[in-house]
Amino acid sequence: MTTIVFTGPTLPPDEVRRECDAVCLPPVSQGDVYRAAQRRPRAIGIIDGYFRGAPSVWHKEILYALSQSIPVFGSASMGALRAAELHGFGMRGVGRIFEAYRDGELEDDDEVAVIHGPPETGFVAISEALVNIRATLAKAQAEQILTPGSRDILEAFAKSLFFHQRDWPSLLEAGLARGVGRSEIEALGIWLPGGRVDQKREDAIAMLRAMRATDDRPTPTPPFRFEWTHFWDELVARDAANPPRTEDAASADSEPILDELRLSGAEAFKAVKVRALLRLIGEARSVRAGQVTGSEALQAALSRLRSELGLFSRAKLDAWLTRNGLDEASLEKLLRGRMHVDKMMEARGASLAAAMLDELRLTGAYEALAVRARDKRLALKELGNKGLTIRPSGADALLARLWFIESRLRRSPDEDVGAIAQELGFRDLAHFDEVLREEQIYSKLQFPHPG
Which contacts (CB < 8 Å, 24+ apart) does range 84-90 have? Predict the structure, then answer.
């Protein structure tokens, strides 16, 4: 599983990766944390985010990630703001800026805002953050570069500026005009290159180290139940209608793969499309219900998949992941989606059975299955009248299971029989054994051994 960090002018991706093995994404905006959570990362870290020019990251999407047991960290800039607002819900804030927002020492978001260059410049900061100015002036006073009065003058002027106008040359020039002594301004100018405090950078690095230190700790259960609302529905719908381009190399080949599926015919394409839709509905319903899939259930789902596909060794599993353009995080997402569909089907019960019969009618398969079921019933009834015992004994049940699993399902007889029976929709093992025994007898009547 990967770690995802949203960063920009505060800390370049190269420095992030020196501290933490992470996928670096641009400054966060609305919808980004929701999309990141879909990748089931080990953790999400927010450093930088948009305050203007794009909708800001929504509190609700951070709560969504937390509800999925994904740790979310924040520091330095937008991350510190959101962490201060959501620390009571489990978001983990790190650093002095976060603490100042949390404790009410800072309130305005312009304290951390900067103007920066476009992505091709690496989001280079063009202005200075007020929190950095405050920390730098405090250090200058502590080292007797500035008097307390001069520090107050410079801080007040910096606060009065619009955030994109804040920089040290402007501040030094304004200090002279507002009564700060020339000797102090000159001393500050000489001291700044080595004395400047980049509090945002320090906090960002502290957050990355905190993320690294908690990599192996179990994720606590979120202290709230995620509530699905109309506005959340809209965000999810917008994201589904306009999916972003992913960073995965395999995604570039996705459309040609779907083209090959389309060439397989309408039925094959429709079948995959319907199953994909079921996955999306199942995932949405699980979030609405506040369902969180435990590690034991995930391990069982993985074991089932490996058995179905014959991935009995780690090397085979790794090779399969590579061939299918998956990593551990995307595999986990795949398994969760399948489990959500299974739960949804299990909950539907009799109403699903009726809907399945209707689907068979629509596809034209109903009549042939109904005829076969009737013929089987009549044939078995006739055998029963002749004194043949249909109900399976222990040995008969075992042989019928082996016959069905190996010859019909083409699966390993070592698989969990109870799981197979549940997967196929049987009420219990007794129902499974009874139907298999009847099918085995009927098959022999249809295709008797020669001689």
Answer: 85/59, 86/59, 86/62, 88/223, 89/63, 89/222, 89/223, 89/224, 90/66, 90/220, 90/222, 90/223, 90/224
CA 416 to chain centre: 30
Q: Which residues pair with 46 in a beta bridge?
A: 6, 74
Query: Where along the chain do its domains lie?
Result: 3-120+201-213, 126-197, 261-348, 389-446
pLDDT exceeds 60 at position 416: yes
Please state, in angstroms and rounded to a whole number, the distance separating the CA atoms of residues 351 and 338: 20
CA distance 45 to 24: 9
For tokens 């719908």, the residue is 237
DSSP class per residue in 28-87: B-TTHHHHHHHT--SEEEE--B-SSSSPPPPHHHHHHHHHTT--EEE-TTHHHHHHHHHG
Token reading at 209: 């180290």
pTM over 0.70: no
Integer Cα distance of 451 and 437 in angstroms: 23
**pLDDT at res. 112:** 94
Q: Residues 71, 44: contact at Cβ < 8 Å?
A: yes
CB 9 within 8 A of CB 123: yes
Mean pLDDT on 313-342: 80
pLDDT of residue 148: 94
Residue 203's nearest CA partner among 86, 117, 140, 112 is 112
Give dist(CA 85, CA 27) in Å, integer: 19
Beta strands 43-46; 92-93: pairing state: unpaired
User: Is pLDDT at 250 greater than 50 in this prediction?
Assistant: no
Residue 412, pLDDT score: 78
Collect all residues with Cβ–Cβ distance below 8 Å to 415 and sequence separation of at least 6.
Answer: 304, 307, 405
- Determine the Cα–Cα distance for residues 103 and 96; give it in Å rounded to an integer: 10
Specify the DSSP element, H or E, that contains 23: strand 23-25
What does 372-404 look like in DSSP terms, one character per residue?
HHHHHHHHHHHHHHTT---S--HHHHHHHHHHI
- List pLDDT tens digits, range 84-121: 999 999 999 999 999 999 999 999 989 999 988 888 88
- Between CA 399 and CA 320 the distance in angstroms is 32
**Backbone φ and ψ of 72, nearest 5°:** -125, 125
Degrees to nearest 5, angle at CA 244 with 237 and 48? 100
